[in-house]
What we know:
This protein has a single domain (18-128), classed as Response regulator (Rossmann fold), CATH 3.40.50. It is 37% helix and 14% strand. It contains 4 helices and 4 strands; from the N terminus they run E-H-E-H-E-H-E-H. It has helices at 27-39, 49-58, 74-86, 100-116, and strands spanning 19-24, 43-48, 65-68, 90-93. It has a 4-stranded parallel β-sheet, with helices on both faces.
Amino acid sequence: xxxxxxxxxxxxxxxxxxxxxxxxxxxxxxxxxxxxxxxxxxxxxxxxxxxxxxxxxxxxxxxxxxxxxxxxxxxxxxxxxxxxxxxxxxxxxxxxxxxxxxxxxxxxxxxxxxxxxxxxxxxxxxxxxxxxxxxxxxxxxx
Length: 142
């Protein structure tokens, strides 16, 4: 297993990593996702629930990626995806718990695609910038 602290998240010319907005419906999930991403040296803003997420998306802070935790209700996720799209923020929906290294790798890949203007991989709907990443088969949580 790779050490999270050893993952390089600096961009060209040593610039700091893009700012992430992480939202969850449960404080414990929010704290753990933020801790993992902060340890990997990402700039992270945290939002507990749809209302806080909406406020941060509408603020003057520029976010490169909205990470939506699986603890957000489906109807709230859909609303947040639409709102993020209106603010030109790409979304990454977590369908289940991911090991820390996998979460960091996926975020790095999505940010790289944003900066190199690559097409999103495994995208359901590129028009709304939804990039759900699932492991295993539906109904089979691995």
